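task queued by scheduler; priority normal; single chain, no ligands, no partner chains; default sampling; output format set to structure tokens
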Amino acid sequence: MYGEEDILSYQCNVKGYKILYTPELKIIHLDGVSTKKTTGNNLQKNIFYYSHAVKGLKILLSLMDK
């Protein structure tokens, strides 16, 4: 949700791992669970979401700089 998939994909590519797609695999994602823990209005929830998304992007960019 905050870039974990992008970080994992990047790290797999760097290490030369093969990424496979399996359509039979189902992952149940509890949509908005961490965001719902944030009390307050939509503005506060958006701030929570985007601040975490930016942190994930910064991590990915720092990995790409190595």
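post-processing summary
- The chain has a mean pLDDT of 86.
- The two ends are 24 Å apart (CA to CA).
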